[in-house]
Amino acid sequence: xxxxxxxxxxxxxxxxDISTRWNSTYYMLDRFVxxxxxIRGTLGLLxxxxxxxxxDEWKITKELIQVLCPFEEATKAVSGxxxxxxxxxxxxxxxxxxxxxxxxxxxxxxxVINVLQQLLSGMxxxxxxxxxxxxxxxxxxxxxxxxxxxxxLSDSMQRSVxxxxxxLTAEIISKDRSSNAPLQEDxxxxxxxxxxxxxxxxxxxxxxxxxxxxxxxxxxxxxAIIEVHRCLEDSIINRNCDPLKWWFVNKHNYPYLNQLAxxxxxxxxxxxxxxxxxxxxxxxxSDRRCNLSSKKAEMLLFLNQNT
Length: 307
Prior knowledge:
By secondary structure, the chain is mainly α. About 60% of the residues lie in helices and about 0% in strands. It has 14 helices and no strands. The chain has helices at about 1-5, 25-35, 35-45, 55-80, 90-105, 110-125, 135-145, 155-180, 205-215, 220-235, 245-250, 255-265, 270-285, 295-305. Helix 4 packs parallel to helix 6 (about 110-125), helix 5 (about 90-105) packs antiparallel against helix 6 and helix 7 (about 135-145) crosses helix 8. The radius of gyration is 30 Å and the shape is elongated. The two termini are about 40 Å apart. Mean pLDDT is about 85; it is low at about 185.
């Protein structure tokens, strides 16, 4: 009523948090501060109104919103299902640490400073965020990400992941060369001339010479090193660009790294997309549809996720 009487065409309601989703606490506090005037005005009209927040408590709540805002942004970023998420985990974790360190130097209240110190302590804990940088999957994904590459990694980590990627690329090159090796001639292949004398004129001599010149002469490791170095020397794209489109455009420039990127960058940064699928499966397989075959249920889930 207070919002309507003050000209609000779409009055908002207070929100409550959910214990299993910490973001809901941020949304609850943010909506509470957003409706501060409405809450104060409504409580002032009540005869037996409950005790409201003091001025210091309102200040602490507003400062807590500033502290939790970067974490809410990070949670939404790593919980996506329409883009790559594993490659941004290291970048976001470092960004959160830097933001918390900057806010810890601000003139916040003692209570909020204590919250920031606890957050920093948790992020620096070896058994928590310390294991993120030791994940080979996350480091490889970040290295193959054209928006970041190796700029977010330490020197020792850069050398380690670079050698790792070169080794994986060399394996792909080796498999590709073995699969393209000359096969045993079949009866339908073009017959080779019997006489191998150089003086004999052959219609295939020119093309055979050119093909032989184009065959790779270096080892698979040297070929992998060249491709990785060329990719690192290429300019880093804007953070708002689509890295998948970049790899598609440059698939001919980096043919083997492109194969490795397609294999690695599909990794998920969190389990949120999987949890969404489980939740939708629970809504799909109700008591009235318990006779659905597993194949049809899978098809329905696939259509639900990709439409």
